[in-house]
Amino acid sequence: MRNSEIGEIIQKDPGIAFAFYQLGILFPSHHELPVSGLCDKLNLDDQWLIRNLQELRKSDPLEWTPSNYNMPEVVNHLKSVHKFFIQEKLPFIFHLVNDIDPRSFDTQELARDLKMLFPLFYEDFVHHIRNEESQVFEYALLLHQVNENSGNPGLMHFLKSKVDLCQTAIEHLEEDDEMEGIRSLTNNFNCPEGASLIQRVVYWELEKFEKDLRRHSQMENDIFFPLAVDLEKKARKRLSKSLLEN
Ligand SMILES: [Fe+2]
Ligand SMILES: [Fe+2]
Known about the structure:
- It contains 10 helices and no strands.
- The chain is an all-alpha fold.
- Helix 5 packs antiparallel against helix 6 (about 110-145).
């Protein structure tokens, strides 16, 4: 790896461009340099760089296999994935798409459409996450506290008026195709033969993001929502029982 050009390394493994970015090395700058040349230029230890690139390339922030699911831990994990999407992955893809020179794509029209469409998707996605965290997750954590006898049940009624859990769960299940527009624009992320390096990296990252997004949504659909609905049932039972007793 030490003597290979960065462009060559990324050509073989487009996913490693993100690892370079996580180490503060922006793609496509420096792509004509060998790793050793880059290290000389930035005064970096090449072994350190290679080891970190390999570790980052292997890391998977979505991976999570607890022995049992408890609401605060589920919410913590989901929020850490949101953070990864919003603070690392999407800014990287945004930077790539924003910097596309349309002449470097097989058709300039496609590049322009992507530059227009991606920021719209980005905005919608951030909105989805903000709502999820500020309303649905907050409510689920409160339900957990009520069941642990530590939450304010009055607040539960206040939040409940804002969050219809069953309806939100159904809508969440149905809205699993947020990237439909980008997928059809890029022909299911099929990169044309002989495409430029930047086009390959953009397609690879968009496809990877779609897969990650599906995994994340599935975890919300299969684990978070059923757990929250169950906590709500239990909390209701608990509240009506304590009302009868008083
Ligand atoms: Fe989410
Ligand atoms: Fe979601």
